[in-house]
Amino acid sequence: MLLSQPRVVVLAGGVGGSKFTLGVRAALRRLNAPEATVVVNTGDDLWLSGVRLQPDVDSITYALAGVNDTERGWGRAGDTERVNEELQAWGAGWPWFTLGDLDLGTHLARTGWLRDGHTPTQVLARMAERWPLGIRMLPMTDSEVDTHVLLEDGGRLHFQEWWTRHRAKLTPLAFENPGIADAAPAPGVTDAIASADVVLIAPSNPVVSIGPILAVPGIRDAVRETSAKVVGVSPIIGGRVVRGMADVCLTAIGVETSAAAVARHYGARSAGGVLDAWLVAEEDAAAAPEVEAAGIPAVVAPLWMRDEESSAAITEAALGA
Ligand code: FO1
């Protein structure tokens, strides 16, 4: 049954998270429901050339503000690279990693506020004042818990180097978030989950986007204990990842790239996991019985996020689940 004005919390990261969040905002506006709270993965974050980058926070912020580069899926639309060229000439930063001029303005502002003693939560709230985002954004934690990739040869890379330099071609053995065991949920995160009517798990990378959020001590328990319905959206369509490297990440943790396997990875809340329902793409309808066999009610729906409208329809299907 569709709740009339649900309080919604979304767990999200990456490009999938930003497209999904646009749809959540549109769907909730139609219902005159309160603004959703989006708990954003900060495991992709890094220090580079003296500034703090928060790729998932920025991708979602830019998308909600309508200033994102929709082609690349990250950075600002129409950005230039003059400062980046100068950084490269100095041999600063990473030669394979582009920092756009407008994007650098964000990183400089953020780093300045962090250096002034503000927490990442406070910095994000300040950044959100610039644009009417229509969404309350919270980082998953105020601690720095970047993601490292452990490799077959014993090496260890920052996730951003593994992804942007090596395009996920170096086989990962595991993903780690050093320091996460000592991290706490950012202020407001567990309260939002506890008082929600619906918690949505975005079709983001289950390993390096949703994984770190649920690994912050206290967040998985909050999701398990909330009276809200917890509905996940499959990031797999037609047995494949839509974009990015989730297939490589899933293989590394021993999970098959299929809608049913990812549902089992999250698990039924009734069996110690986090899901009360799982949205399966029409292309994967045959996987629904397998999902249900794991104790997770499956809802088959169109899951391609072509535009805001198709993305909003996914939220509507999730709210009806
Ligand atoms: N992705 C790339 O593939 N190449 C880049 O040079 C790059 C730069 C970059 C700068 C700022 C930022 O916020 C994101 C950036 N990304 C870049 C995207 C990012 O590496 C990942 O796609 C996300 O972290 C995955 O969610």
UniProtKB/TrEMBL annotation:
UniProt-listed InterPro entries: CofD, CofD-like_dom_sf, FbiA/CofD
Pfam families, alphabetized: CofD
UniProt keyword annotation of Flavoprotein present: no
Region forming the signal peptide: none
Keyword Magnesium on entry: yes
MF-aspect GO terms: LPPG:FO 2-phospho-L-lactate transferase activity; magnesium ion binding
Keyword annotations from UniProtKB, A to Z: Magnesium, Transferase
SUPFAM superfamilies reported in the protein's UniProt record: CofD-like
Alphabetical list of PANTHER family matching this protein: 2-PHOSPHO-L-LACTATE TRANSFERASE
Protein name, as recorded: 2-phospho-L-lactate transferase
Organism: Microbacterium testaceum
